[in-house]
Amino acid sequence: MRRSRWTPGGRNDQRRTYFAPTVPGMTGPRISPLPPSERDERTAELVASLRPTGGDDDMNLFATLARHPRLLKRWSAFGGVLLFGGTLSDRDRELLILRTAANTGADYEWGHHQVLAELAGLSPEEVARVLSGPDAEGWSSHDVALLRAADELHRSAVISDDTWAALTSTFDEQQLIEVPMVVGQYHLVAFTLRSLGVEREDGFEGIPA
Length: 209
Description:
The protein is mainly alpha-helical. It has helices at 41-49, 60-65, 69-84, 90-104, 107-119, 124-129, 141-156, 161-168, 173-196, and strands at residues 3-8, 15-19. It has a two-stranded antiparallel ribbon.
């Protein structure tokens, strides 16, 4: 996988790698969305239930995973708990997801969650600042701990003692459990989006250059 430029970040000037949003040579989806005409009744109902509130169009991610409906049903239930039934605030959850999207080069993930992040109270300036990471000026200590946790999980698969201590100052046990779960879930989504070549819908932006 091609990597983009190195950028400084993290304590002790540790270097972090950002992945290029596209895979060289990939010109379209490797697995295309399942057309409505090819869905059985149960699969059609499942995909329809995952449409954004008030929307009539299927998301390409869900329409693609409709080719494996049993997996889609179980995975979407788990993801739905984290997205709609978790104990983290919407703002905290979206910070974790956006930083994970940036770390993994997941354009599709970034585009959809940029919208959700602004609905959750993040300003456009804060959304853009996510790309600069926890060391950028302007974050609260709470935000720094969240962004650093996302980076540490991405880099080392574990939250450091210092970052854990910072998180425990504001989060309860259920929220602490959800932090790595959210980051892990959206790594899974990023891996799937990028490897299957799921294309963004019109109107959703990718990660800024």
